[in-house]
């Protein structure tokens, strides 16, 4: 039996006895033992499989450029990252821009502005759309990451990542959403068009804020695995699967406001299943990365 055949046999066996993902976890651990981490293979793994929670922060930090590929430098780099965090945080305290009562997501936003050189002279400034995006991502990331330093670096790196990689894709994602939803359920698309609600769905929440605030952290982080590793199309299929899952509810809502309100905060009891089905849809329509891990 070939090595690939043995691996496939073991994977099927583990899944049958309740140890789904054991082989994948072992594969990731092998990748993480390399002195120089292979970005391409880590991206491929993240595209194909959910990241184990114990390794997610490390993999995200490497893929987002917070940590370098060479593992021997990780501890030194994180010392500098931590010092930079505390320097910026302390500076905001000295000028009394933040205090212990300031919500953590707002603290992170002020730190980001200070580092970018555009901190407002007043705390009572109107939020720009970029600020709202940052706060949405920050609030979601807080629920995923316990360490404040890691959390801040991941927030600002993730925001930079989606802005630089996916900003130009938002319009195309909306078109792709309609295309794939039509392939899966053309009657639902016809219903939305007839009710003039297709163009009024919460696309900004889905494709700009990456479902932050719409999905709970436990489900959202599996979607963000794919974003961090380079694919924005997963967002399209999450949106498609949400509409397929709640088709009966959506068909019963007759106006755009009530539909948007429902879709902006969907029930949390089956979001894990929605994300799993969305990933299956994504692989069905777009294929699976072929790089061997």
From TrEMBL:
Q: Name one GO molecular function term.
A: GTPase activator activity
Reading the lineage from the top rank, the first entry is: Eukaryota
> Where can this protein be found?
Cytoplasm, Cytosol; Cytoplasmic vesicle; Lysosome membrane
Q: Sum up the protein's function in the record's words.
A: Non-catalytic component of the TSC-TBC complex, a multiprotein complex that acts as a negative regulator of the canonical mTORC1 complex, an evolutionarily conserved central nutrient sensor that stimulates anabolic reactions and macromolecule biosynthesis to promote cellular biomass generation and growth. The TSC-TBC complex acts as a GTPase-activating protein (GAP) for the small GTPase RHEB, a direct activator of the protein kinase activity of mTORC1.
Q: Which organism is it from?
A: Pelobates cultripes
Q: Which GO terms describe its biological process?
A: negative regulation of TOR signaling
Record field: transmembrane: none
Which Pfam families does the record cross-reference, listed alphabetically? RabGAP-TBC (PF00566)
PROSITE patterns recorded: TBC_RABGAP (PS50086)
Give the protein name, as stated in the record.
TBC1 domain family member 7
Task: Provide this UniProt record's keywords sorted from A to Z.
Answer: Cytoplasm, Cytoplasmic vesicle, GTPase activation, Lysosome, Membrane
Coarse class of the protein's main subcellular location: cytoplasm
Which GO cellular component terms, listed alphabetically, does the Swiss-Prot or TrEMBL entry include?
cytoplasmic vesicle; cytosol; lysosomal membrane
Listed PANTHER family: TBC1 DOMAIN FAMILY MEMBER 7 (PTHR13530)
Instruction: Name the SUPFAM superfamilies on file.
Output: Ypt/Rab-GAP domain of gyp1p (SSF47923)
Record-annotated Rab-GAP TBC domain positions: 50-231
Instruction: Indicate whether Transmembrane helix appears among the record's keywords.
Output: no
